[in-house]
Amino acid sequence: MSRISAQSLIALARQQLSRGNLEAAIQSLVEALGIDVGNAQAHALLAMCLIDQRRLTAAEHEAGIALKLAPEDWFAHLAMGKVQFARRRLDQAETHFRDAAGLAPQDDLPMHALGLLYLSRRRMAKAREFIEAACARDPTEPDNQTLLARWHLAKGDLDRAEALVRDVLASMPDDQNALIVLGWIELRRGRTDQAYEHAVWAVRNAPSDAETLELLCAVKARRSLLLGLWFRFNAFVAGSSGTRTVLLLVGLYLGVRLISLALGDLGHPTAASVVNYAWIAFCVYTWIAPGLFQRLLRKELEQVRLRPDF
Amino acid sequence: MAVYALPDEPRPGALQSAVTDPMWPLLATMLVGAWFGLAWFAFNGLALGSATRPRELGLIALALGGKALVIVSMVAALQAGWIDKSVLPYLYLVATGVLLAATYALYLLQSRSFELYTHFGGEAKNGVVIVMLGMAVLRPAVAPLFGEGFLELVLR
After folding, report:
1. Chain B: nearest CA to A297, how far in angstroms?
2. Which chain A residues are Cβ-neighbours of B104 within 8 angstroms?
3. Measured between CA atoms, how close is A248 to chain B, in angstroms?
4. Which residues contact B62 (CB under 8 A, 6 or more apart)?
5. Do B8 and A57 touch (CB under 8 A)?
6. Is the pTM of this model over 0.90?
7. How many helices (H) and strands (E) does chain A have?
8. Can you give the pLDDT at residue B65?
9. Chain B residues with CB within 8 Å of chain A CB
């Protein structure tokens, strides 16, 4: 009885995911696991959801439980592979994706994951092999078409990439990945206004997505070098991991203190004070910069109007 | 129905009403003193029911222990005649760097729990008054108790 209930909750979670309701899906899966804590499928699907929320520690924990419960489950391997890919542990990700592909040779998802992994490693021939395998297994899946477009974009075949991605957008105008790829294509063609429209549309769908912000920064940089640098710096400061920012700030602090001490010892107390005040101004800026950046981003989103022919 | 708990989700208890954004303990570490800021981090972790509390406590120990170790090494090197007294302010920067790096790491770690806490509707107190009081009242009252020796250097 309880197993049936857990299964129906997992099915509900899949429906919620297909509608893009990530939080509701997580809630359904948590409820499913409350009924049947030994359900590998629920743990693996929950891991996938947690990756999308960037909760990688919890995602790794859930994928680990799924693999422990069902070492031969391809979906559990896929989930663990995606966690490792998100953590940039590419060798481990490749192993899990290959295990998943071996266990489910007819499914397109492991092929897609391998294609994406090899594309990120710039191993183009291998990437194409797996992307085409994914497309052959499910030719209607927009993610597979968009990944193929990415491959063509990376190879510089803009016409082919654009044709593929416009095909996807014709049926799914809000597809985040397709919008980003089209934005990069427009930028490569030098059509910054169109690239900007796609970037902003994508930011509207996912305001904190790193790849989307990267595209927006690139468009800004193309329009104005200074503004581009400013955007890039803010995207860095407001970035998700924070570790780089901490290292930058601690390193800068120590550097500034060192210079200030040395200037004082060398008999330049005024210069030492200037350095100290400049540092305080920088600190204040870094505290308020993420908020300012988000506000500016919101302003950009309010300003954008899609062309009628989009 | 049994409730499945996700491993990274905080489980706040009776002290929930005292939860603050970890940004405030971080500021307090810089503006009031390590003794106050780090104690606040530990309390905030407890109030949040942070899933990463053991690691947070480990980072607090690392911040204070690491700084103490650098200072002890400095004093030992000075007494052995390996370094000149004029180099001490420069070497003290290393101690400050260790404290800052561990405190920032602590801030990032606790921020993840705090974000999840607010994501699920948890309310947080504004810590600005505590930081101000710490600077204006606590720091002048407590800091002299540490004297002017090793304890003061580590805890300030």
Report:
1. 21
2. 246, 249-250
3. 10
4. B102
5. yes
6. no
7. 16, 0
8. 96
9. 1-4, 6-9, 86, 89-90, 93, 96-97, 100-101, 104-105, 108, 111-112, 116
CB pairs under 8 A between A and B: 54
Q: Which of A166, A160, A112 has its CA nearest to residue A139?
A: A112
Contact A164, A142 (CB under 8 A): no
Asked if residue B100 lies in contact with residue B59, where contact means CB atoms within 8 angstroms, the answer is no
pLDDT value at A297 more than 80: no
Task: Show residues of chain A in contact with B97, CB under 8 Å.
Answer: 250, 253-254
- What ipTM was assigned to the predicted interfaces of this complex? 0.73
Band of pLDDT at residue B22, cut at 50, 70 and 90: very high
Q: How far apart are CA A38 and CA A124, in angstroms?
A: 40
Name the amino acid, one letter, at A205: N
**Alpha-carbon span A157 to A139, nearest angstrom:** 20
Cβ contact A110:A104 at 8 Å: yes
- For residue B20, which phi and psi values (nearest 5 degrees)? -130, 165
| pLDDT > 90 fraction of chain A, expressed in percent and rounded | 53
Q: Give pLDDT tens digits for A145-168.
A: 999 999 999 999 999 999 999 999
* pLDDT mean over A35-54: 92
